[in-house]
Predict the 3D structure of the following.
Amino acid sequence: MIRIFYLTVFISISFILSFNSAVAVNPFESLVMPGDVIEGHKKYESECSNCHKLFSKRGQDKLCLDCHKKVNSDVKKKQGFHGKNKSIRNALCKSCHTEHKGRKADIIKFEKQTFDHNATDFRLRGKHKVIECTSCHKKNKKYREVKSQCKSCHVKESPHKKARAKKGLFNQCQRCHQTASWNKIKFNHNKTKYKLTGAHKTALCQSCHINEKYTKTPKKCISCHKLDDVHRGKNGKQCQKCHTTKQWGKISFNHTRDTSFRLKGKHKKTPCKSCHKKISYKKKKSKKKKVARKCISCHSYDDKHNGVFGKKCNSCHHEKDWGWDETKFNHGKETKFALTGKHKKTECIFCHKVKQKKNTRKTSCISCHKDDDIHKGNLGSKCNSCHTTSNWKKRVKFEHDITPFPLMGMHSAVSCEECHTGSDYKNIRKSCVSCHKNDDFHKGKLGNNCDRCHTANDWGVWFFNHEKQSKFKLKGRHKRAHCHSCHREAIKQVRHTPRDCQNCHANDDPHNGQFGSRCNDCHNTKDFSQIEMN
């Protein structure tokens, strides 16, 4: 009865207070309200009916869409994120956007890392897939406010700024450009009155369409290639008689048929102006000036020998396709010094620096490689006893096994410079630590006799047998203990480490030394805490 009384009083008071000003929150509603709404909905909090409709779930959605008019428009037109996706379009608003979570609650719950942009009106293709969201969606701007036209983002990249008002070219970027690459265009020029062939296919649009003029473009060669005309108009304007669109410098003129100088090898690909510099190609009544046909007349600048071998270039060089640098001179047959190894690829000028008589040049290694001798003459002048022409520094054929230090294991694959850092090859220390001090993981705690454990096959592999090579047999937990647990200080030579338990386990002794240092009378090596009295 008491409970019914209080409930009646509570309902009566709530009914009386409900007639207060509409601006104030209904006390009864405020009592049943599960929590504050977000800051943006705060002004609607005074009346629950602004957002809630009793006994109608869809009626509540209608109230949401009455306020969010743009979302409502997207749903009706089946566009945008809310309208394009059927599952979202038919779902209740509160299934995604829950309220009464506090003023600063996030009821949108947008995750850009997992958001599928293809569910919007703008499907991401090509390079759009990898760019940052902030490239298009600017700060303090709604995501829906971004325009989907190319020009909205690429206005600065457009080279057609002067053509904005010409037949809408600026608004139809997709006719030529692609999302895979802005600079790669797909416009089919062959559908116009001027079919692109040869090098015209790869030429820039601006090369012909100057100032973005795309109508009434001149089609004659001379209109674009006037600056390329090396004849300066002397041969007329019908360039296509000799030139082609494949390559302006490649002409259809037959030099062998029409002249007395047959073009062979690289001469076939040489531009005409390389030889015909100031001479017209037109036939004249007067006698033509003859072009010099000697090699040196054109190739004086290519002569790397600086006249050392005279002017008869064709005695060594030829016109074949592999070039001026390839010679037909056989050094092994025509001289007493056969070229082997890297000598085959060495330029002639490195050895033949000045003009000399035949068979007077020195052929000893030291005559050319004196500056390369890191031994400073200490090992004599017979460099070929160790070095080869294949590689002066690396491929040394010296037999190291005849020395007091034969190369075994990984030492056989190490370059000489790893151990022989200077020019002195005789007085080199042979101890492991002289080279592997930085590799010593033990920091000298196990002495300098590395070969007791390690081998030359692999530094990381060791074979030390503690039971056979020492007087302390490892049992129990000692088998798993790290070497440094007992060997703690750096030493030059391994000594017999004290083997009493007390030396290592003094801190583990709960008896504080009352029972002496013979811990093994009671304890075992399996577990120090176990007691096994003899």
